[in-house]
Design goal:
Blueprint (H helix, E strand, L loop, with lengths): L22 H19 L21 H16 L11 H25 L8 H11 L7 H22 L8 H5 L6 H17 L4 H25 L22 H10 L8 H22 L4 H14 L2 H14 L7 H22 L3 H10 L6
Length: 371
Amino acid sequence: MTDTRPVPPTAVRGASASGVRLQGVDVARAVALLGMMAAHIGGIADQLDWSDPSTWSAVAHGRPSTLFAVLAGVSIGLTSGRTTPPGPPTIGRVRARLAVRAAAVVGIGFVLIALDTPVYVILPTYGVLFLLVIPVLRVRPACLLAIAGACAVLSPIVAVSTAPAYADAGMVGQQLGLVYPVVTFLAYVLVGLAVARAGLEARGRQVVLLASGALVAATAYVVGTVLAPLPAGAAFAFPGVPYAVEGSTPAEALAQLFLSPRDHSSTTVDVIGTAGVAVAVIALCTLVFDGRGRVAERIAFPLAAVGSMPLTIYSGHLVVIAMLPEYPESAQAWGWFALGSVVFAMVWRRFLGRGPLERAVAALASTVPMR
């Protein structure tokens, strides 16, 4: 939920922070936003089966929110120095601004929860994640990936351990830590921050990220499918928590805890696989659209406009859902929401620039002076 104009490496001791916007990052963010809309209102299939094309819409389960979280880490990296984060005192001011943004995102998240739509709102979790990455803004990419790996291993353990605390929780309680577990999503944000620190502009790096993300994802899903095939009823298990059928042996339960490929299950395989998919999508979008000239920019503009104002588009679609007399849930409903989002974003960006909520949050963050 941060802007993608980076602080250049020379931005130290209060130097001006500006830079070229990455179209591919905006396009990837639009893919995540439209995918999350599909998960909310698209009437998508319950479980993905690659041998059955009628279930392919289930790819929107879990993966868009994961892509959104990885992109949050990428954006944080781009706004804090790209490959070379600034040193003191500028990094302290960058951290303070990020803390202000985090508070604003949490506040907006609670307003959206108050709309009482049957949608799990991810923004409060995002705000907490922004705060958690503040201490590691200057950590090297390899260390960031190591911490993310530790989070991926701990993810199912924490999810299962904390689930009983939500046994009697209502919709609001479930949104604040159960459906979007902090440890799980911290892994995604750290991966995104590592990607930004490694560099997204060079063609060679984009190809490496695309290949490595695809390889990691494919390996994770193959291992999970072979060693922990989905049990009956897994498609209807509660999101964010690993699932094993009653009567499973200890070995089967352990396999489902760490190795299950079930979407949005917080297992280690799920975290690694979806993170790999997210990295591959981001790398592909930057490879296709960035530095390709005016024609590529024009082709990218509809989606890039949506991705340039994620907080506005995400919040707006929930406000529209709350205003409708009945909850929309069909492919047609998703099509209208997607079209409306693209048209609104294109017109707003063409004539007014930054999205309204993005502008408001940036104004709050600017109360922390960079000089």
